Amino acid sequence: MSYSSMAKSELCRIRPESECCQVAEAYGLLLYAKLLSERHDSYSTDNKAIASLICECAASVCGVYADVLTYPKSSGGTHRFAVKIPNAEQKKMICARFAGAGNVLANECCLNAFLRGAFLVCGTVTEPQKDYHLEFAAGSQRRCEILAGVMQRVGIHSHQLQRNDRWVLYVKDADGIINLMNRMGAHYAAQNLEQTRTVRDWRNNANRRVNCDQANIDRTLSASEQQCAAIRKLTEKRGFEGIPPELREIAALRLENPEMSLRELSESLSEPITRSGVNHRLKKLMELAEETQ
Predict the structure, then answer these.
(1) Which of the listed residues 148, 170, 185 is the one where a domain comes to its end?
(2) Mean pLDDT, all residues of the chain
(3) HSE, side-chain direction, 13 A CA sphere, residue 172
């Protein structure tokens, strides 16, 4: 089961106790199923539980008894389920119930119920192991703006875009998605995402540390190669005795241990000095090599 399906399965089991939230959830379901539009009298889905929930809400809130029709997919496999409003008269009853529905979203609990209904019929969320992305395929610009307003009221940052001729509202940050899941009542899905984020963050931090360590090693080896080349040039041109006495020990140590860091070189000297002291002596050797013809 996908993460999106898991979240919706959890949400379908919720039944609001207060009447105001029942109405708000029904409003979200019916509005984004387009059943409040004069042009649509049916809504189809792969999820039978969502279809049944729409019928249940239409009956309890609007007094309309819709039918759930089952038919096979054209490509075979699983079935699709369609919520069908029986006739024009009952369609008018649904539309009339939510005419001027501004007061339906008066309370914060109702905003959460409305978002739950909307997500069930037009929402999807990406597998959190891959990306943090939740979106509502709102359809029209008006429906998208209603969602954006509700999101703003509950403190969740969202974005809108037009994809072809349809409007989409989306949330891209993990905190926003977790907040939304908890508000809608999908607490298990929210916990699952939180745990996944913790693992992803740990892996990303571990990878960054490994990459940083590798970069440091690469820099050390690159610098060491240049230093060793300079020391060899000096010994070829001047002989080892031609290297200033104070630089001979570090020169020999570098040639013998090209993999050592500055700190390791400093600790290996007969009289340990600071890293900056080691670096200064190696730079001096490279300058002498450049001056040597």
Answers:
(1) 185
(2) 86
(3) 4
pTM of the full structure: 0.70
Q: What is the pLDDT of residue 7?
A: 93
Exposure letters 202-225 (e unless 16+ CB within 10 A, then b): eeeeeeeeeeeeeeeeeebeebbe
Give the CA angle between residues 165, 57, 157 to the nearest 5°.
45
Q: Which of 94, 102, 97 is nearest to 149 (CA)?
A: 102
- Two structure tokens written together for 164: 């072809």
Same domain, 231 and 143: no
Backbone Cα Rg of the chain: 34
Q: How far apart are CA 171 and CA 156, in angstroms?
A: 8
Same domain, 159 and 18: yes
- CATH number reported for the structural domain that contains residue 110 in this entry: 3.10.28.10
Residue 77 is predicted with a pLDDT of 60
pLDDT digit string, tens, across residues 193-225 = 888 888 877 776 776 777 776 777 777 778 888
Q: Which residues contact 122 (CB under 8 A, 6 or more apart)?
A: 32, 33, 136, 137, 138, 139
Task: Give the residue numbers spanning the domain of 152.
Answer: 3-185
Nearest to 177 by CA among 132, 244, 241: 132
Q: Tell me: the pLDDT tens digits for 79-122?
A: 788 888 888 888 888 888 887 766 888 889 999 999 999 999 99
Contact 150, 165 (CB under 8 A): no
* Shared-domain flag, residues 117 and 224: no
